[in-house]
Specification:
- The chain is α/β, with parallel strands linked by helices.
- The chain is 38% helix and 12% strand.
- It is built from 12 helices and 9 strands.
- 34% of the residues are buried.
Length: 323
C-alpha cells in the first residue's frame, strides 16, 4: 500500500462497516478500490447511499473481463504446426486473487494494521522488502508507492542536485524523465540502438561532449524498456571509468538476468515495479534496492521512518547509520 491507498482502504472499510455490509462486502471493496479499478465504483457512489454489492442494482458495477479471447493460430501460414508452447490467455486479463491472499486481506482488516508502520505489528510492506532482498540479492530494499517514486528517491540519495544533468534512455517511459525533473535535474537523452536499448557509443559521445564543455555528467539512469537489455558490461565499465553513478530502472526487468545475475545488481541503486502490468502485480508499487547502507538509510528516511521506525523493518541498516 502507498500512503494514499492505505487511507482510502481504511475509509472504505469504515464506510462499509457503518452501512452494515459486513466483512465480505468490505473485502470486495478493499480489493476493488485499492488493488483494482472498477468501472463506476467510487467513494461518491458509496456516499450516495448505494446498496451492498450483492444487490441487483450494484451487480453491474462489479469487475468484469472485457478483453477479447486471443486468437493465436496453432499453425503457421504454410500450414505447419507452431513449435513449442502457445500462450492462450488474454494479456490484459488479471489473475484472480488466490484464497490465501483473500484470507490474508481479511486478517489485516480484522487487525487494523493496514499501514507500513503499525505499532506491535510486522507490516506486509516490510515482509515484501525482505522477500525482494532474498530474490534479487541486494542487501537492502525499501517499498514505495511506485517505481517512479523509487527512481526519484534513487536520484536524491545518489546526490543529484537541482540543475544537475542526468543521462537517460531516449526510448523510455514518461516516469523516467518525470523522476529526473522531480529531482530538479535535467535529462540528457542517449540514442537507442535498433534493438531499442541504450546505445553505448552515443553514451560515450555524450560523456565526451560534456567533458569537453567543462561540465562532466555524473549520473546515469539506465532503463530496460520492455525488458530489453543493453550491452551492460560496456555501459557499466564506461560509467565506472568516468565516475558516473548509475541508478538502474528495472521496472520491466525483475527476473531478467545478465550473465546469470539479476539486472540492477551492478548499479548503485536499482528500482523495480509492481504495477498491475508488471511481473509482480500489487496494483501500484515499487521497490528501491541497494547494497549501500547509507543510501538505504536515506531512502528509509524519505519513506517516513521517523522516531526510529526503521526498527520495524525486517531488513535495515544498523541504527548507527541512521544516527
Amino acid at each position: 500500500f502507498g500512503p494514499v491507498g492505505c487511507f482510502r482502504a481504511r475509509l472504505l472499510i469504515l464506510m462499509a462497516t457503518k452501512k452494515g455490509w459486513g466483512a465480505r462486502s468490505a473485502t470486495v471493496l478493499l480489493l476493488s478500490n485499492v488493488f483494482l479499478c472498477v468501472d463506476g465504483l467510487s467513494v461518491d457512489f458509496l456516499k450516495s447511499g448505494a446498496r451492498p454489492l450483492a444487490s441487483p442494482e450494484a451487480r453491474g458495477l462489479l469487475p468484469r473481463m472485457v478483453a477479447t479471447v486471443p486468437t493465436m493460430p496453432a499453425q503457421s501460414e504454410d500450414g505447419e504446426d507452431c513449435p513449442g508452447p502457445t500462450f492462450d490467455k488474454a494479456i490484459s486479463q488479471p489473475d484472480p486473487i488466490p484464497e490465501e491472499g483473500r484470507a490474508r486481506a481479511m486478517e489485516l482488516m480484522e487487525s487494523g494494521a493496514l499501514f507500513r508502520y503499525s505499532p506491535g505489528f510486522l507490516s506486509e510492506t516490510s515482509l515484501a522488502e525482505a522477500d525482494m532482498v532474498d530474490y534479487t540479492g541486494f542487501k537492502y530494499s525499501v517499498g514505495f508507492n511506485s517505481c517512479g517514486s523509487a527512481l526519484f528517491i534513487g536520484l536524491k540519495v545518489a546526490g543529484v542536485q537541482p540543475g544537475d544533468k542526468v543521462l537517460a534512455n531516449a526510448f523510455s517511459f514518461t516516469a523516467v524523465p518525470s523522476a529526473i525533473h522531480h529531482a530538479g535535474a535535467e535529462p540528457v537523452y542517449v540514442e537507442s540502438t535498433n534493438g531499442y536499448t541504450m546505445c553505448a557509443e552515443d553514451l560515450r559521445a555524450k560523456l565526451d561532449a560534456a567533458q569537453a564543455e567543462g561540465s562532466p555528467i555524473k549520473f546515469l539512469m539506465l532503463t530496460h524498456m520492455r525488458g530489453k537489455v543493453a550491452d551492460m558490461d560496456t555501459i557499466h565499465d564506461l560509467a565506472e571509468e568516468r565516475g558516473v553513478t548509475v541508478v538502474e530502472d528495472c521496472a520491466h526487468a525483475l527476473g531478467i538476468q545478465w550473465r546469470g545475475v539479476q539486472l540492477g545488481r551492478r548499479a548503485s541503486v536499482a528500482c523495480y515495479s509492481t504495477q498491475s502490468a508488471k511481473v509482480i502485480n500489487s496494483g501500484e508499487g515499487g521497490f528501491f534496492c541497494t547494497d549501500d547502507e547509507e543510501m538505504a538509510a536515506r531512502a528509509y528516511c524519505y519513506a517516513g521512518c521517523y522516531e526510529q521506525l526503521y526498527n520495524q523493518h525486517v531488513v535495515s541498516p544498523p541504527a548507527a547509520v541512521f544516527d
